[in-house]
Structure formats: structure tokens, C-alpha cells
Amino acid sequence: MLPIERIFCRLQGKPTDRVPFAPLTPLYGARLISCPLNEYYTSPQKYLQGQIAVVDSIEPDILFTPFALVMEAEAFGSKTTYFEKNPPNLRIPAIGSFADIYNLTVPDIENHPSLVYMQESARLLLEQYKDQIPVAAIVSSPTELPALIMGIENWIDTLLFHPKEALQLIELTSAYFVKFANSMLSLGASCIYTPASFSNPTIITYKIAKDILVPALRRQYTKINGPIVFHHGGARILPFLELLHNLPNVIGFVLDPRDSFNEARAVIGNDLAIMGNINGPLLLKANPQTIQSWVLKLLENRKDDSKYIMTTSNADIPYDTPLENIKIIAETIKKYKN
Amino acid sequence: MYIMNDFEINNHQSILIAKIIEASRTESVEFITEIAGDIGYVAAINQVLEPVLIEIGELWSQEKLSLAQGYVAAKITEDVLLRALETKEWQSKRTEISTTVVLANIEDDFHSLGRKMVSTFLQASGWKVYDMGNDVIATDIVDKAIELNAPIIGVSAMMYTSALNIKKVRQEINDRNLQNKIKLAVGGAIFKVRPELVHEVGGNGTVASATQAPQLFSELLKSITPA
């Protein structure tokens, strides 16, 4: 089976030759081609080369557009800092207070260099792997992006104590989200892959999620012209799944490594895909034998789940992760007999 | 002035915890202010707020509370401290820990929330805090600690790569032979995900929530060998 066939059969609950595997390797491509990250995250051609190297060495079933959420915030005016071995991160937020929310405008997705880079990277990937490997477009959630526009502290403060301004900012990020996500889908992306840190109990209260954030997502997701995969955003998502599982256009959830698949299935039922649960950042220091045991445990746990896709959870697989630590996952899946 | 019995103290603590969990900042501050009206700010903070913060810290470290609720606890503490500082009672009675500590986000780290919360909780416990802000290089941090005669440096990082820069602070401390005079507390989201990193970067200790920082700093202060 081709990766694209494997993934689409899985999403429909049809038989596949094996469990699909989708490691989060946007960053790892840079390592494979030894490309400095300030170049990799500005040149779509370099990004494509990196992902070609990922395909050649790891054979993933899904490819991703750049996982650099702060670049979307850059389009709102935030300043970015580049690292030697990490994706770009927030240096200075676009605004310093909730009062400045009214000065923000929706960025021009056709002309802002960061957004052009991300769309062009998607286009090149899709051109290269059309009809072979699905491409998931990583796009910031409209409820998460404010943390990169005004900083985590200010966004929490605004949500807690200035709900009117919080809604105003979500309206703005939503307008951007709908435009940008639909642009990625119109280029041919198979789905929108959206990390949402502000939709879990580690960061935010259940009440704020229920009253402000999830209703906002519900309003915007109806406007997206394709499927959405909801990524846990780096913390346990299970306690909030009951709020999230029937969001429009959502076809699956990537769980946190600490979330239970069985408990998640009990909440979301059998119609949606369930993804995870290799802890991506832990691949850096684990040895292949340990990783193999993680994979086998997951395969056993999900052996009767026709809508399970093995992905890495949390952030990008770290730059210095030994290649054999990723390859062992793919090899173990291929050898596994269900 | 009125003296509360244990039942009243426990009752007040329970009410305050419930209010913080509901993220009710204004109600919480008014509630403590009301208690302070009866027993004074020093007693209200010592007997009600501080034990509640310890409890909140415990719940938070077990991930039973969100960052937002921890943030509310910090804002309530800030608000109460501001009110207390205006009173004569506070100025005459509150015993400050006559020790200054230095806080900073390490070089390349710009995530200030945890550091600011630690600063608030330390000040509430009587510590003097010198906050150096974000993206501070190791030599500047250690220079400032020496200048202020600070026995503890608290350094925060959110990401793995920036956390590795904390090694430079350990190196500075060791190069200047200050291991027995300056202790290094480390914190930030990455240390919850990778606890082994505390040892890797040369930290002398960490805690899982900002509200637990005063306890850690007290332990580190006690561990310093007298000259």
C-alpha cells in the first residue's frame, strides 16, 4: 500500500497492511540535510529537501508542513528568535497588554514572508508527493495563537480577567485561521493539524475551556473546508475530550503520552481516528530496545482499533535524535503480526 | 486583636482554596482582606494565605490544578501583599528574611511567567528578590549574586535547549569556587517533563510549582555551609 492509501483506509476503518506511522519530523529534516535552521525555516526549497531526506530514510505515512507556530505570530508582529537545534520561538510578543488587542489586524496571508514560506513549503511538498504521501498542514489553533501574540502570561490574564478582549483577539486569530487553513487545504493538504495547548487542564480551567475556548473553536471549525486533526499541544487532553470530541470537521485526536487510549475511545467512540503515543522528545535519549518495547506495547494495546495511527506526540522529534531511534519504530511496526 | 482558633483557621483555608480553584481573584482578595480586618495582615498571610499556597502548590505539582489557577493564586498574593504593604502593622510586624535572592530566565529563554510567579511567592514569604528578567547570560547572573551577597540563584527555562544554558551558571559558580556559598535552584516546564535535567545542568534543586519555591529556597539556604 502507498502511504496515502494506508492513511485513508485507516481513517475509514478499512483494513490496511499495517499500522500507519507518522513521526513529527519537520525539524528532523534539517538535521538529515545538515541545514542551518535559520535557512531551513526561511527557504521552502530547503524544507522540501529536508522532508525528501525524511521520506528516504524513515518512510513516514504522513508528511507535515513546518512546525513553527511562532512564524504565524510573526505575521501579527511578534519577533522570533532562531536556535541552532530547535525550531524558532517567541522572542518579543507583538503586544504587551490586552488593551493593545484593538490595534491588531488580520495579517495578509498572501504577502507576509513567514506565511508565504509555510504555504510555499506545503506547495512544494504536495507537488513532490502528490498521490503518494498525505501532507498535514500544521496551523496554530485560534485559541492558542494569542499566547504567541501577547505571551502566555498575558493571554492567561486576558482569558481570566478580560473576557471581552479575549473574545476580540480570538475573533481576529479566527479570521486568520480560517483563511490560512483553507489556503493550505486549497493547495492540496490532506488535513489541518492543529496543536492546542489552551485546550487542556494543565494550562487552563475547565470553565474557560467550556465557556470561551471550545465554543470559539466550534464556530471556526465549521468554516474549514476539510478535515482537522486535533493535537494535544503538549499536555494531557483526556479530561477535556468530552468538550472537544464533537467539534465540526475533526477527524481525529493526537493524545498526550500520559492519556489512556482506552479511556479516550470510551469518550470519543469509534468513529474518529486516535493517534499517538510515542513521546517524540524522549526519542532523543532512549535506546532502540526501549523504543521497540514502547512500540510493541502500543501495537498490542491498539490491535483491534481499526482507526489507530501511530504518531509521535508532543513537540518535534529533537534534532540530535539518533536516526536508528526513529527507524526502529517503523521497523517494529512492519514486523508486527496482528 | 482577635486570635483565631484552629477551626476558624481551617475553615478560612478551605474557603480560600475553593475560591482560588474557581479562579475568583477579587473575591479571594476581599476574603483575605476581611480576615486581615480581624486578625491583621501578618496573621492573615501567615495563618491562612501561606498554608493555602502550600496546598495549592501540592495540587498544582500533581497536575490537579491548571497553570491558570496557579496564576490566579499569584495575582491574589500580589494583590494582598500590595494592600498589606500600605499598613503600619505590616511595616512594624512582618519579619523579612534578610536574604536577597537573584532570579532570571537563562540566556535564550523568554518565558517569564514562571519566574514572575516564583518572585511573587518568595516575596510573600518574606524574601527579598532581585529579578533580572529574560535572556540573561550566566556571568551577569553570578556577578549580580556576588554583588548582592545572594546565597541563592533561581534560574528558569522553558525549553530543553535553553535549559542547557543553565550549565553555564553552574560552571561560573564552580569556576569562582562558590559552590558552598551560592546554591542554584532551577525551574520551568522542561524540568517537569525531564526531571533528570536538574542534575544535568548542575541544579541544586527544583520544585514542580511556583508556590513551592519558598520551601525549596529555605532548604537550599540551610544547606549552605557556614564560613
Quaternary organisation of the protein chains? heterodimer
DSSP helical segment count of chain B: 12
Q: Enter the CATH topology name of the largest domain in chain B.
A: Rossmann fold
Instruction: Determine the strand fraction of chain A and express it as a percent band.
Output: 5-15%
CATH-level-2 architecture of the largest domain in chain B: 3-Layer(aba) Sandwich
Please bin the fraction of helical residues of chain A: 40-55%
- What number of structural domains do the residues of chain A give? 1
Adjacency order of strands in the biggest sheet of chain B: 2-1-3-4
CA-based gyration radius of chain A: 19 Å
CATH architectural group of chain A: Alpha-Beta Barrel
**Number of separate domains of chain B:** 2
Task: Give a verbal description of the structure.
The complex is a heterodimer of chains A (338) and B (227). Chain A has 338 residues and is α/β, with parallel strands linked by helices. Chain A is built from 14 helices and ten strands. Chain A has helices spanning 3-11, 28-32, 37-40, 44-58, 69-74, 113-129, 145-150, 152-161, 163-187, 206-221, 241-244, 261-268, 288-301, 323-335; strands spanning 21-22, 63-64, 79-81, 89-92, 135-138, 191-195, 228-231, 250-254, 273-279, 308-313. In chain A, the strands form two sheets. Chain A has an eight-stranded parallel β-sheet with strand order 1-10-9-8-7-6-5-2. In chain A, a hairpin with a 7-residue loop joins strand 3 (79-81) and strand 4 (89-92). In chain A, 54% of the residues are buried. Chain B is an alpha/beta fold. Chain B has a four-stranded parallel β-sheet, with helices on both faces. In chain B, helix 1 runs antiparallel to helix 2 (25-39), helix 2 (25-39) packs parallel to helix 4 (67-85) and helix 4 (67-85) crosses helix 6. The radius of gyration of chain B is 18 Å and the shape is globular. Chains A and B meet through strand 4 and helix 8 of A and helix 4 of B.
